[in-house]
Every structure is written in structure tokens, then in C-alpha cells.
Amino acid sequence: MxxxxxxxxxxxxxxxxxxxxxxxxxxLGLITVLxxxxxxxxxxxxxxxxxxxxxxxxxxxxxxxxxxxxxFAVMIVTxxxxxxxxxxxxxxxxxxxxRNWFTNLxxxxxxxxxxVPSIIYGLLALGLFVYILGFGESxxxxxxxxxxxxxxxxxxxxxxxxxxxxxSIREASFACGATRWQTIAHHVLPYxxxxxLTGIIIGLSxxxxxxxxxxxxxxxxxxxxxxxxxxxxxxxxxxxxxxxxGFTVMPVQIFNWVSRPQKGFHVNAxxxxxxxxxxxLLMNGLAIxxxxxxxxxxxx
Length: 300
Hints:
With about 300 residues, this protein is mainly alpha-helical. It has helices at about 1-40, 50, 65-95, 100-115, 120-130, 140-165, 165-175, 180-205, 210-215, 250-260, 265-295.
């Protein structure tokens, strides 16, 4: 009787494995077909002029210069605002915070914020950064809005990476006379850095494709100028004026082109979608590579 049950269990396990493999291939196949169809539609517009031209009323002259520059500027603000705060919060909650009702409340709120629709962050940013703090419809507002969006992701990734470090490493460090911060800085963080960086890059790759929060805070659908340069020829040679300039980003530009009836703008939208997808895939590929390199270096 026992042998029969084992055979049935192995048979069901094989069926489950084959079903999962089939579903994976179907999902990858569908994504591949969609990407090929997108590439066929937009490949003809992928040239140097497309990357160095501003949007235009004429589809054959339109480009994504202001969109990819705006995306790059917004992502800089997003990274600067979300990464230090998210990593610091994760370290505090995992290594310093006492286990009580207040900590549990914070953890529940972080988990809930990770599932909040992105449009809610846009409305929050509109009320806080635009109306209350007076940052206006600027790159700074857009970057902070996306920073709020990915903050729970960064915190959660940091905590999970730190939690995976064996407690014996901390105890060995304490036994050698190290302080808590020395233990974190010299042992916990180096070992967990692969997971932390992976979570950060995945969060940024999500932020780069967001549209709703940026439209809410005033991202422009048509813009024919670049932000102010961050470097100048006058002392102190650094300018932060670009933070308060108007902006657009790749997803908003794609939305603008898709909403137009002309076939040429749809081709431009397909080409811009290819660029955005490649950027996202490269960021996720970088996350996988970083995780692999850090895991390879670690020897318990």
C-alpha cells in the first residue's frame, strides 16, 4: 500500500512539473511573439535621428530626445530619494527596532503600501509636493513621487536580504568585540548587498515604466526643450535649476503617440516601446548579474 502511494505521489509530482514547464514556455512564447510584433512595427524608426530629435507634429520628424533625457533625470531623483531612505529603514527595522506593537504596525503599513495602486502615489505627490511644498510640476516632484512608489519595495528587499544572513555571523562578530554597527557595516551588509542591489534595481525598473503618477503631477505630453544643464561655467559650477524644470518621460511620450490617429505616430510609439523595454530588460539583467556575482564571492 505504501509503495503504491509513493508511485502516485511521484506521478502527480511529474505532472505538476511538466504543467509548470509548459506554462513557463507558453508565457515566454507569448512575450516573445508580442516583442517580435512590436519590433517589426517600430524597427524602421530606430536610428540616430530618432534619439536626437524632439517631438513634432510630423511623425517622420518626431523623436524621443526630451523623453529619454527626462526619464534619466527623473530616475536620478528617484534613486537619490528612495535608496538611502529605503536601505536605512530596512536596516533599522531588521537590526535595531524592538519587536513590539509599534514595529508590527510599521511592518503592516509597509506591506500594504507595496500593493497600493500607483495613481494613489501620484495624488499624494500632487497634494504634498506640488501644493503644500510648492515644488511645482517639475522633475523633482516626479522623482519624489516615484521614490515614494518604490520605497516599500526597497525596504522589503533590504529586510529580506539582511534576514537571510545567518545569526551565527553576528554572534561571532559580537564575540570578537565588535559593536552592532561594526557588525552591520563589515559583515551583514557585505553579505546581503547582492539581494539589496537586486531589489533596488527591480524597483527602479518598475519606476521607469510608470505613467499614472507622473501624469498626475503634471508631466507634459509634448515638450520641445531639455532641462537646464546641471553643470555651468560660473561658480559654483553646479546648478540645481533642472530640478524645477518641466519634463516628460518615455511612458508619457508613448501614451501621447498612441492616442493620435496617424499611423506614423503609432510606429513611433512602437519604436519608443522597444527602447523602454530594452532599458527595463537591461536593468533586470543587471540585477541578476549583480546577485550572481555577490553570491559567487560569498563563502560561508
